[in-house]
Amino acid sequence: MKHEVKNKRVYIYCDYQAVVCAWNNQGAKDLKRTLVMKDIFEFTVNEIIDFGIQFISSVDNPADSESRRDTLSDSNVV
């Protein structure tokens, strides 16, 4: 997959404020989140990717409704 995004632009709209802040602040209070951001940064530099992340509210995020829809597989019948 690495070479599929080499020399590309990747812009992400994210409805999770903590992730957006971690990227913009180059780190987070949570060490695991900081390490993930570091890995993403190193990947974007090595693969020459113009990477950006921007906050979008859940209401305005078209992908959010699909991920929050309850399905039968999400249910646990006792």
Task: Explain what you see.
There is one protein chain. By secondary structure, the chain is α+β, with helices and mostly antiparallel strands. The protein has one domain (2-59). Helices cover 40% and strands 15% of the residues.
Number of helices: 3
Q: Secondary-structure element order, as H and E?
A: EHHEH
Query: What is the radius of gyration computed over CA atoms, rounded to a whole number of angstroms?
Result: 16 Å
Poorly predicted spans: none
Question: Structural class, from secondary structure content?
Answer: alpha+beta
Question: How many beta-strand segments?
Answer: 2
Q: What is the helical fraction, as a range of percent?
A: 25-40%
Provide the spatial order of strands within the biggest beta sheet. 1-2
Overall shape: extended
Fraction of residues in β-strands:
15-25%
Mean of pLDDT: 82
The main sheet comes to: 2 strands, parallel
Termini distance? Answer: 41 Å
Could you say how many structural domains there are in total? 1
List keywords for this structure.
single chain; about 80 residues; alpha+beta; two-stranded parallel ribbon; 3 helices; extended
Give a quick summary of the entry.
The chain has 78 residues and is α+β, with helices and mostly antiparallel strands. It contains three helices and two strands.
